[in-house]
């Protein structure tokens, strides 16, 4: 990125007090945890930045049986919030925090950004199919027939979420409706467990 403002470019290896305050406000980590994460990040990325190639290499270690390239390309563009082509420590830790500690809505907002590859604020069926194929590649999933076929999966998802039949999902539709479906399914599971417990008590 160019330095048009004339300001000295920040050293990406340095964790400033401003960085810490921003991370304290936007993650659930303590000051001590942020410093520990930063030390670990610098061990893996001595220059203080993670490029797409290194990011993909890290993912491949976790998913050696699959192809991580397509999935990583989608994830990387979401995490690279300033579109510099590199992820610095603050971008990295915010992404980790949302993935690991964020509430359901935050995670769904992150998922929406992954699906919305052209950044127009809507997900169409082609965008969703692209991500599903990327996830299959990542996991090494070879069974892509019947209900497991990417197009079939997309149709099933849109049938549940696309209430106005527009052929696209807005962020609000995706987040609110997915959360509602998830809560309903969780409630049904809890009811089934309670019924099973009652049956066990009767048979004692």
UniProtKB/TrEMBL annotation:
GO molecular function: calcium ion binding
Record has Repeat as a keyword: yes
Cited Pfam families: EF-hand_1, EF-hand_7
Keywords: Calcium, Metal-binding, Repeat
Biased composition, class Basic and acidic residues, residue ranges: 176-185
Sequence ranges assigned to domain EF-hand in this UniProt record: 67-102, 103-138, 149-184
Composition-biased stretches (Acidic residues): 186-204
Region of interest called Disordered, as start-end residue ranges on this chain: 165-204
Superkingdom per UniProt: Eukaryota
Family indicated by similarity: Belongs to the recoverin family.
Protein name in the entry: EF-hand domain-containing protein
Organism: Brachionus calyciflorus
């Amino acid at each position: 990125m160019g330095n048009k403002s004339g300001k000295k470019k920040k050293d990406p290896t340095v964790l400033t007090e401003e960085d810490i305050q921003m991370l304290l406000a936007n993650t659930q980590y303590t000051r001590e945890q942020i410093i520990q994460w930063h030390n670990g990040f610098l061990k893996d990325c001595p220059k203080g930045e993670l490029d797409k190639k290194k990011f993909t290499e890290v993912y491949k270690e976790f998913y050696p049986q699959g192809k991580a390239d397509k999935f990583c390309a989608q994830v990387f563009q979401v995490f690279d919030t300033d579109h510099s082509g590199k992820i610095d420590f603050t971008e990295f830790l915010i992404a980790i925090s949302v993935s690991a500690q964020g509430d359901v809505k935050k995670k769904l907002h992150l998922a929406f950004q992954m699906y919305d590859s052209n950044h127009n604020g809507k997900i169409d069926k082609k965008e969703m199919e692209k991500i599903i194929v990327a996830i299959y590649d990542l996991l090494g999933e070879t069974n892509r027939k019947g209900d497991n076929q990417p197009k079939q999966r997309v149709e099933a998802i849109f049938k549940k979420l696309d209430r106005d039949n527009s052929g696209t999902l807005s962020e609000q539709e995706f987040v609110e409706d997915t959360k509602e479906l998830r809560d309903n399914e969780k409630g049904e599971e809890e009811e089934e467990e309670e019924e099973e417990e009652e049956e066990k008590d009767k048979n004692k």
